[in-house]
Amino acid sequence: MKNEKLLYIHIPFCDSKCHYCAFNSYTNLNHLKKEYFNAIKTQIENDINKSIQFKTLFIGGGTPSTMKIDFYEKLMKLLEYNLKDAIELTIECNPNVTIEWLKEIKNLGFNRISFGVQSFDEEKLKFLNRNHSPIQAINSIENAQKVGFENINLDLIYSTSLDNNKLLENDLKTTFSLPITHISAYSLMIEENTKWEGDFSKRKENEELEIWFINKIKEKFNQYEISNFGKPCIHNLGYWKLNEYIGIGAGAVGFKKMENGEWKMENEELRKQISNKQSINLLSFRYYTQNDVYEYLKNPCKYKYEMLTDEDIKKEKIFLGLRSIIGFEENILNNKEKTRVKHLIKENKLYKKENRIYSLDFLLADAITSYILD
Ligand code: SF4
């Protein structure tokens, strides 16, 4: 069978907490880093047997660059056999990272690096509570190229209350001058459990400005998903294609499908529990480790489950397919749904190629999915 499995490892530590951030990340737990390695080692040994081969590895956070190189040396050693055939190894980092760290990370085999830049505007960075400067971001991206990274991503945030054409144009001018291959551009969301929870004054509602910004990016980088442009990230494409993944670390998520009528899982406990739930006609599920770092350290192999029915999976296939270049197979639809799709093709919202349905405007994915499934 073709190897399509993905591995995600979560690093929950950050130098400072950004005001908009709802990720599972902490600034006051640095003293737990050593124990954290031991916990992820336990989870890896429990969930990943030597024979599993991953197509991609993605280390995200939090801020993975807050961990010293010896952490990654030990981690890569632990996963040596499982990453033999991996084609993409990504690590996220903060722009305050040093060239020495970048060089050593490259030497460990990482071939894709992602920088949480967000903006090159000093005032906007302070407003977001980022702890790096524009010049640090420029230098670190150039350093990544110097040490040999050929796949470099840069994250940008838009729709903040400070944004206007001039600020965003300046951000893009600097962005386009750098040796990057990929841009992730996210519209600011005001989320619960963040410093900005409930304060919608921090967000600018200006659809015209958003469309203008996205179109500017599209002039230079091909849009392949609603927020992603450039050379596609194979790991993220794998999520959207609903490939299986294993999630390691506090608050990480795994996704497992039944293979030939059987649950083939390393984790004995997980397999037992899932097998007991067969009565609901379950063909796939997601499982979550504990978010709380202290709880995770106590028991890294304790999971919560989210059962997915065929209908759930079908909805995800349509939604994720329409947000991206992936599209979805027409034959997952019933006759009524096919009629609605035909109508949308006539309306120039969708198109069909070799029995797959694709979107002509990723921004409409939500509305179109609801319409198709009624
Ligand atoms: S660096 Fe990233 S993970 Fe850390 S607080 Fe900021 S947005 Fe959240």
From TrEMBL:
Where found, per UniProt?
Cytoplasm
* The organism of origin for this protein: Caminibacter mediatlanticus TB-2
Primary place of residence? Answer: cytoplasm
Cofactor(s) listed in the protein's UniProt record: [4Fe-4S] cluster
Q: Which domain of life is it from?
A: Bacteria
PANTHER family named among the record's database cross-references: COPROPORPHYRINIGEN III OXIDASE (PTHR13932), RADICAL S-ADENOSYL METHIONINE DOMAIN-CONTAINING PROTEIN 1, MITOCHONDRIAL (PTHR13932:SF5)
- Keyword set for this entry? 4Fe-4S, Chaperone, Cytoplasm, Heme, Iron, Iron-sulfur, Metal-binding, S-adenosyl-L-methionine
- Quote the InterPro entries the UniProt record gives: Aldolase_TIM, Coproporphyrinogen-III_oxidase, Elp3/MiaA/NifB-like_rSAM, HemW-like, rSAM, rSAM_sf
| Domain Radical SAM core, residue spans | 1-227
What this chain does, per the entry, is described as: Probably acts as a heme chaperone, transferring heme to an unknown acceptor. Binds one molecule of heme per monomer, possibly covalently. Binds 1 [4Fe-4S] cluster. The cluster is coordinated with 3 cysteines and an exchangeable S-adenosyl-L-methionine.
Pfam families, per database record:
Radical_SAM
**UniProt feature coiled coil, ranges:** none
- Which named protein is this? Heme chaperone HemW
Return the similarity comment: Belongs to the anaerobic coproporphyrinogen-III oxidase family. HemW subfamily.
